[in-house]
C-alpha cells in the first residue's frame, strides 16, 4: 500500500479531520464521503468577520469525478486557495502523523470484539 492508499484508508477510518493549512486552519476540514465514494474538503478562510466568511466545498459534482487520491484532492485545494499542492499534502500528512503518534502505546495483543452489521432477518450460527 502506498502513501496515497494509506491516506484514503485513514480518512475512511477516522472521518472528518481538520485541514491545518495556513490561513484556512481554523474551520476547514477534509475527509471521506462514503455516499459519493470520494475524498472532500470544506474550506473556510480564517477571518475575524463572520460576515466575510466564504465557504468552499471540494468534492465530486456534475463536473468533477470522485476524488480517490490524496494528491488529486491536494491539487484541487491548492487551486482553490492559491497555494502549493505540496503545502496541502504536508497539511494532510500532519494530521495523519499526529493521529499515529497518539496510538503508539496501543497493545497489539489486546482482546477485542468484532461486530458485523448486515440487513436481513436471517439468523446465522457458526458451525
Task: Describe, in plain words, how this protein is organized in 3D.
By secondary structure, the chain is α+β, with helices and mostly antiparallel strands. It has one domain (3-96). It contains three helices and four strands. The chain has helices at residues 3-14, 70-81, 85-102, and strands at residues 17-18, 29-33, 38-44, 55-58. The relative contact order is 0.15.
Helical residue percent?
A: 25-40%
Q: Radius of gyration over alpha carbons?
A: 18 Å
Structural class: alpha+beta
Query: What's the overall geometry?
Result: globular
Biggest sheet, spatial arrangement of strands: 1-2-3-4
Primary descriptors:
four-stranded antiparallel sheet, 127 residues, 3 helices, disordered C terminus, alpha+beta, 4 strands, single chain
What is this structure, in a nutshell?
With 127 residues, the chain is of the alpha+beta class.
Task: Provide the fold topology.
Blueprint: H1 3-14, E1 17-18, E2 29-33, E3 38-44, E4 55-58, H2 70-81, H3 85-102
Antiparallel strand pairs: 1-2, 2-3, 3-4
Helix pairs in contact: 2-3
